[in-house]
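hey
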C-alpha cells in the first residue's frame, strides 16, 4: 500500500471548471479501490464549504510569508471513502466567483498569493509538518496551481517523491519578479534552473524542473509539448526531461459509473449495446429541448465546449454554416460559454438557422448528459487537446466523435477509414489540419456515412464497447509511483 497525497485546485463535485476536476476525483477514487492510502488536498473555496457543511478542523499551520495561521479541514469525497484535506484561509478562498476568476470572468488579482499559499500548505502536509502524523511517499501535483509544491519540497532533506501532471500547457501561472518578492519565496528558487522564466516567475516551470517525474494526460500530447507549437517556450526543458526518461503520457480514464447510458439518471431514456432503440428517443427529447424540428433522419451534431479558439469553435461555426447554406439536413446543438466573439457568432448562426441550431450558454451537467445521449455525432475540432474527456464520453454513448488528430484525441479515436471499418475498429472521424476546409470535408464524410444506417450502427457498437475506465490508467500511475519510491 502506497501513501499518496494528490494535490489539485479543483475536484468534482466540490469544485469544477473543467476536466481537471473530473480527473482529480476519478483517479484518486480508482487508486483507493486498489487499496492505496490516498488523500486529496485542495483549497477550501466558499462554494466548497457551503456544499459540504461542517468540516472538522484537523490541523493549524503557521506558514512562511503569512501572518494568519492556516486551517486544514477534513472531509470525504462524496460517495467514496477518499479523505479530502481542505486548505482553509478565508482571506484567499472565502469569496464568491470561481476558483480562478471573479463573477465577470476576470482573473483574481491575487492568484499568485492564493496558490502559493495552497502549495505551501500542501508541501507542509507532504513533509509531515502539519501535525497529521501522516507522511506520503508520493505527492502527485496537477497543473500550474500546484507547481510550487515540488519546488518547495526540493528544499527539504527528507521528502516524498513527486509527480507533476500537465493537463494543459497553455496555462502556466506566469507572474512578475515583483510578485515573486511579495510572496517571500526562497531566493534560491529564482534561477534559470528554477522557476524564473524570461524574467517572470512560472508556477508551471516549478513542477517541470523539480518534480521527479512529469506526466501528461496522453502519450501523443507528451510528444507534442516537446515541440515549439505546443511547448509555450518550455519545449527545450520538456525535451530534456523526456531524454532523461522523466516525461511520459498516460491517457486519462473516465468515470464509467457517472457516464453510462445504461444507468444514467440524467437522460430521458436509458439504453445499451443490446438495446440501442431508446437512443432515438433521447434525440427527440434533445430536439424538443432546443425547439428544433423532431426528425430521426436528421444528422444531429453535439458540442459541449469552452468557447475558445483552442477548441476550434470557429471551425465548427464556419463549417456548419457552410453545410447549412448548402441545404444539408443537419442540426447542431451546443452547450458552453467563453469568448464573447464566439458566443456572438453562435447567436448569429442560430438567428440565421433557427430550425437547425440550438444553443445554451453556460454549463449544465444534466444537459451535458442529454447531449451525449441524444446527438448522433460529437464535434471536437480542437487545435490542441492534451487528453479530452468528451470524446470518451461520446464513444460510451455511441455518439461518434469527430476530432482533430491531436493529443489525446489521436490516442482515443480510431478513424473511419474503409479498412478500419471493415475490421470493426473504427470509432469516429479524424482530420489533420486545423482548417475549415479539412473539417468541412470530414463533416461531409460523416454525413455520407450517416445515410447508411447499418454501417453507422456498426460503428456505434464498436465505439460503445471501448474500455476507458480508470483501471488501466490508475495501474499505470501505480506502476510509476512504485518506480519512483524504489529509486528514491
Amino acid at each position: 500500500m502506497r501513501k499518496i497525497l494528490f494535490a489539485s485546485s479543483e475536484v468534482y463535485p466540490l469544485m469544477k471548471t473543467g476536466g481537471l476536476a473530473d480527473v482529480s476525483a476519478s483517479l484518486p477514487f480508482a487508486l483507493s479501490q486498489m487499496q492505496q492510502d490516498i488523500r486529496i488536498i485542495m483549497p477550501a473555496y466558499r462554494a466548497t464549504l457551503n456544499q459540504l457543511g461542517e468540516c472538522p478542523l484537523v490541523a493549524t499551520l503557521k506558514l512562511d510569508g503569512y501572518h494568519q495561521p492556516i486551517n486544514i479541514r477534513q472531509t470525504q469525497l462524496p460517495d467514496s471513502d477518499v479523505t479530502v484535506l481542505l486548505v482553509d484561509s478565508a482571506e484567499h478562498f472565502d469569496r464568491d466567483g470561481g476558483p480562478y476568476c471573479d463573477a465577470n470572468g476576470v482573473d483574481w488579482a491575487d492568484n499568485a498569493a492564493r496558490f502559493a499559499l495552497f502549495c505551501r500548505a500542501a508541501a507542509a502536509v507532504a513533509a509531515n509538518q502539519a501535525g497529521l502524523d501522516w507522511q506520503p511517499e508520493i505527492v502527485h501535483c496537477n497543473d500550474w496551481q500546484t507547481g510550487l509544491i515540488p519546488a518547495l519540497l526540493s528544499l527539504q532533506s527528507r521528502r516524498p517523491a513527486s509527480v507533476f501532471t500537465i493537463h494543459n500547457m497553455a496555462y502556466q501561472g506566469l507572474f512578475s519578479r515583483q510578485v515573486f518578492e511579495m510572496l517571500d519565496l526562497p531566493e534560491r528558487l529564482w534561477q534559470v534552473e528554477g522557476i524564473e522564466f524570461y524574467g517572470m516567475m512560472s508556477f508551471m516551470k516549478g513542477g517541470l524542473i523539480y518534480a521527479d517525474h512529469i506526466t501528461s494526460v496522453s502519450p501523443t500530447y507528451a510528444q507534442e509539448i516537446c515541440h515549439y507549437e505546443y511547448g509555450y517556450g518550455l519545449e527545450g526543458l520538456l525535451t530534456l526531461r523526456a531524454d532523461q526518461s522523466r516525461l511520459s503520457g498516460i491517457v486519462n480514464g473516465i468515470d464509467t459509473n457517472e457516464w453510462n447510458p445504461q444507468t444514467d439518471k440524467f437522460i430521458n431514456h436509458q439504453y445499451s449495446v443490446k438495446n440501442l432503440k431508446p437512443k432515438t428517443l433521447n434525440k427527440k427529447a434533445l430536439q424538443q429541448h432546443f425547439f428544433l424540428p423532431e426528425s430521426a433522419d436528421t444528422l444531429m451534431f453535439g458540442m459541449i465546449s469552452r468557447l475558445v479558439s483552442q477548441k476550434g469553435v470557429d471551425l465548427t461555426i464556419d463549417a456548419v454554416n457552410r453545410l447549412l447554406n448548402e441545404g444539408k439536413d443537419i442540426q447542431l446543438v451546443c452547450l458552453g460559454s467563453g469568448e464573447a466573439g464566439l458566443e456572438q457568432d453562435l447567436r448569429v448562426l442560430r438567428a440565421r438557422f433557427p430550425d437547425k441550431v440550438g444553443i445554451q450558454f453556460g454549463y449544465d451537467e444534466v444537459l451535458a448528459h442529454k447531449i451525449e445521449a441524444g446527438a448522433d455525432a460529437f464535434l471536437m475540432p480542437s487545435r490542441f487537446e492534451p487528453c479530452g474527456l468528451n470524446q470518451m464520453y461520446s464513444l460510451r454513448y455511441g455518439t461518434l466523435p469527430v476530432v482533430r488528430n491531436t493529443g489525446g484525441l489521436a490516442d482515443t479515436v480510431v478513424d473511419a477509414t474503409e479498412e478500419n471499418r471493415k475490421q470493426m475498429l473504427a470509432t469516429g472521424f479524424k482530420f489533420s489540419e486545423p482548417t475549415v476546409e479539412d473539417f468541412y470535408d470530414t463533416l461531409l464524410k460523416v454525413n455520407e456515412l450517416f445515410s447508411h444506417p447499418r454501417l453507422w450502427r456498426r460503428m456505434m457498437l464498436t465505439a460503445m464497447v471501448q474500455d476507458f475506465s480508470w483501471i488501466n490508467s490508475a495501474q499505470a500511475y501505480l506502476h510509476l509511483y512504485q518506480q519512483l519510491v524504489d529509486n528514491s
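Residues 258 and 487 are 37 Å apart (CA to CA). The chain has a mean pLDDT of 96.
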